What we know:
Layout: E1 2-4, H1 7-21, E2 24-26, E3 33-35, E4 39-43, H2 60-72, H3 86-89, H4 101-105, H5 119-129, E5 137-139, H6 143-148, E6 156-164, E7 167-174, H7 182-201, E8 204-212
Helix pairs in contact: 2-7
Amino acid sequence: xxxxxxxxxxxxxxxxxxxxxxxxxxxxxxxxxxxxxxxxxxxxxxxxxxxxxxxxxxxxxxxxxxxxxxxxxxxxxxxxxxxxxxxxxxxxxxxxxxxxxxxxxxxxxxxxxxxxxxxxxxxxxxxxxxxxxxxxxxxxxxxxxxxxxxxxxxxxxxxxxxxxxxxxxxxxxxxxxxxxxxxxxxxxxxxxxxxxxxxxxxxxxxxxxxxxx
Length: 213
């Protein structure tokens, strides 16, 4: 596994890896890409979460907006589309985003346990009850997405939290990570959630691990 001090280091190396060491050239849904499967990396300091890379042109305002949108638990595209119109373009119904992670994490969602589970409260309660638990899992993509999602299929499979040595570690598993657009905002958003949960659990911030195809 590749280990980095911060996300900027990881992002530069991931871009180099895809450019120079890609395993396949494929074309899912007709879009030609370079691809590497089973990529995993670790970030030692998740607070150093922003990609400080001039060529990437990272939008701090969009990162803040997207993170606030996630934390609100909303799936409506009306507000977030003011910061990135692609949310409106990929909506299956023209009103909501199927891959609005916050709606699946912080609120009851019809595709999560038949709408009967607030996953954030679950993992927090599980780790308070048993700090050594390996059951603190938040599911994002579900089998229902295979039936009902058309344009907007969640890229993230699951987030798994661990408390070890009084530090909260986060392992994220993804079916796909787009190196140019998606991962530059996914990692900052997930590490922000990690830090918020660590604060709520009154433990230190641990490491971030990302596994993706």
